[in-house]
């Protein structure tokens, strides 16, 4: 038996239960993985609340982790017992040990800890996906990134700086503004004090931005669309404030809208491996630094969710078995 954190039913952090679960031997194509660390992502709160469809309840939460392979099933040739691996899109991560399809894991390079890999792999491939497949972002491009001091946001700031793009980040405090700037944002906007649409137009000389990344939802995407330059791209990647109220008629002329999701990579595992390799390469180069800002015990995952949704966290969060 191993320990796991599961949502007994849809609801708030109080529905999370620390329970015993049985983990069997890996079947064909599977591996058994002992976690060294487990990543916490905002999408976990959607799964807990029942906002996104899943496998029903009770449900072991989490999609991201890193650790050591302890057994391999028949037909597995890509990894072996003792290898260090991580994964970004494997539901059921909040546990000591688990089974997972071997095709879903990627190697953890030397010099990167389990804590760093678990904290970063989902966020890292998300930024690669946004900057290469959702919109090809290049030197000189303006980018507006909401929640720039969050886990994905800080990697987006660093990645933009590396490629020469100019990232404007929205934040909710002076401390978060400094953090975003320290990680490469060229400008920050405190959305609690300023109209971000007007400030973006001012910063860009009325031109607008090539890409807006909006994980806020509610009426925010409608406002975000007003920040776009002609032929710019708005991508929504979440709904922290609830489902978007935007309609197609709210979009300015000659702009693109897409729902950005790395779930697309589940059917394109070669692209998943490519994104992971690109991200870890930048980490090894020193272009992107992984800061694990918040660590909780697995049994305290409810507190991690509470703090995350209360916007008390910055950067990456992990759980330790």
Largest sheet: 7 strands, mixed
| CATH architectural name of the largest domain | Alpha-Beta Complex
In CATH terms, the superfamily of the largest domain is Medium-chain alcohol dehydrogenases, catalytic domain
Low-confidence stretches: none
How many individual helices?
8
SSE arrangement, N to C: EEEHEEEEEHEHEHEHEHEEHEHE
- How many domain units? 2
* CATH structural fold name of the largest domain: Quinone Oxidoreductase, Chain A, domain 1
Secondary structure category: alpha/beta
CATH class of the largest domain: Alpha Beta
Helical fraction: 25-40%
Number of distinct beta strands: 16
Characterize the structure shown.
Helix 2 packs across helix 3 (151-163) and helix 2 (114-134) crosses helix 7 (269-285). The two termini are 13 Å apart. With 321 residues, the chain is of the alpha/beta class. It has eight helices and 16 strands.
Helix-strand blueprint:
Layout: E1 2-7, E2 16-21, E3 30-40, H1 42-49, E4 59-60, E5 65-72, E6 84-87, E7 97-101, E8 106-107, H2 114-134, E9 142-145, H3 151-163, E10 166-171, H4 174-182, E11 187-190, H5 196-203, E12 209-214, H6 220-225, E13 228-236, E14 256-259, H7 269-285, E15 292-297, H8 301-309, E16 316-320
Helix pairs in contact: 2-3, 2-7
């Amino acid at each position: 038996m191993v320990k796991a954190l599961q949502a007994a039913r849809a609801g708030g952090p109080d529905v999370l239960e620390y329970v015993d679960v049985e983990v069997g031997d890996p079947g064909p194509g599977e591996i058994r993985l002992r976690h060294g660390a487990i990543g916490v992502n905002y999408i976990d709160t959607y799964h807990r609340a029942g906002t996104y469809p899943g496998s029903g309840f009770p449900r072991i939460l989490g999609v991201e982790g890193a650790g050591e392979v302890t057994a391999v099933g028949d037909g597995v040739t890509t990894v072996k017992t003792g290898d260090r691996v991580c994964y970004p899109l494997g539901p059921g991560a909040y546990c000591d040990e688990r089974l997972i399809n071997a095709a879903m894991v990627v190697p953890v390079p030397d010099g990167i800890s389990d804590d760093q890999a678990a904290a970063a792999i989902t966020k890292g491939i998300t930024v690669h996906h946004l900057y290469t497949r959702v919109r090809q972002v290049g030197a000189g491009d303006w980018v507006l990134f909401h929640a720039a001091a969050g886990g994905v946001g800080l990697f987006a700031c660093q990645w933009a700086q590396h490629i020469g793009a100019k990232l404007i980040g929205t934040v909710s405090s002076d401390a978060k503004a400094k953090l975003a700037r320290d990680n490469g944002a060229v400008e920050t906007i405190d959305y609690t004090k300023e109209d971000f649409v007007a400030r973006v137009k001012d910063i860009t000389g009325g031109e607008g931005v090539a890409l807006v990344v909006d994980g806020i939802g509610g009426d925010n995407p409608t406002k975000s669309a007003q920040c776009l330059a002609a032929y710019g791209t708005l991508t929504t990647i979440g709904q922290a404030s609830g489902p978007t109220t935007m309609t197609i008629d709210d979009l300015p002329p000659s702009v693109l809208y897409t729902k950005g999701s790395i779930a697309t990579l589940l059917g394109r595992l070669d692209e998943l491996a490519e994104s992971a390799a690109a991200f870890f390469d930048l980490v090894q180069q020193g272009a992107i630094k992984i800061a694990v800002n918040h660590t909780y015990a697995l049994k305290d995952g409810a507190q991690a969710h509470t703090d995350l949704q209360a916007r008390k966290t910055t950067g990456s969060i992990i759980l330790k078995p």
